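User: Modeling request: complex.
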Amino acid sequence: MFETLSATPPDAIVGMIKIAAADTNPKKIDLGVGIYQDKVGATPVMRAVKEAEKRLLREEDSKKYIGIHGNPAFNSLFSKLIFGANSEAITSGRLATAQAAGGSGALRLGAELIKLANPAATIWVSTPTWANHQPLIGSTGLRIKQYPYYNKETQRIDFDDMCAELRDNAKVGDAVLLHGCCHNPTGADLSESQWQTIADLMLEKNLLPFVDLAYAGLGDGLAQDSYGLRLLAGIFPELVLAASCSKNFGLYKERVGLVGALCATPDDAKLAHGQIGLTMRRMISMPPDHGAALVAKILADPALTADWKTELEDMRVRMTGLRASLGEALLVQGAEQMAAAITAQKGMFSLLPVSQEQADKLRSEHSVFLLNSGRINIAGARTETIDRLADCILAVL
Ligand SMILES: Cc1ncc(COP(=O)(O)O)c(C=O)c1O
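Assistant: Request completed. Predicted assembly structure:
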């Protein structure tokens, strides 16, 4: 019967990773993959994670199931980290949480919860957005629409168009997916005043914020990167959060994330908690524990937390430094707009104003690897090759 299946289209990113790996040019610059890399191109296990693993190995005395909502210490400590330990979201009893299989699992669980509560809801996503948002959320059967977000030519957020689209076309009860920080693929984040404007608009139109926080700590710093989420949590009766520990704890393959539903009342939160658990059971039954146990160990120990924060900050500062260097190198050659955009953008990604042909040229003629969309991962750059990178980008434009 399996011969009836249709062949899946080749994965463009996987294909590109293979081509980049096969390129033997010693001057190769690989900005394609979506993971953090250090100055020698490695993605090491973070120090605090290694230490937590040692302790876990020593202390763990059973592998019995932990529960349908995952590791309770992880859910509690990670929620506090993100929302703020003394925030109303935490103290009010209005927040239902569960451990999820990465940010992706959290997005899927969040979308399923929205569907259960309001099957007629449309989920609005930014143009452009992370390539997996539509498949993950669309698999629930919910309708997806797009709002304008970023203009690749001007390299700026289309904020007026974003607001106009949501004001004119979003319906009561629709959910708006917002990148909490470090927008993927553009790196262009809302300013504090833009967060306020969009919050006012959504509140007035009775829209549900659905916040995807996949890069907390890698933009402006841990607390600052939760600015939008915390603002919304302070004024909305309800919101949904999908957060990831893949990037900021470097726990990619362990699949650790958190889904949260802030509800109007503690009773509603109990209902949401129950339905998230039921959805989890229907999808995978019990979630895995290892990664969440590590995060819980780190966040429960002040010394480990401090070390984790130091290393996270080093990663952030490295990327900010690379952005500034690339900006300077572009500016020297007169590319003012691109220099300003890349310097100001946050996190791992920026979207270069290149066509697919120009992206092809960067790969084939200059051994500079990026996605067809023009997305680069700044963490793939090195101080020594920044000038060459600027030259190559400008050569194809
Ligand atoms: C915007 C965004 N959300 C969510 C995720 C999910 O990450 P993971 O499922 O690996 O935790 C990613 C990963 O690249 C992302 O870029």
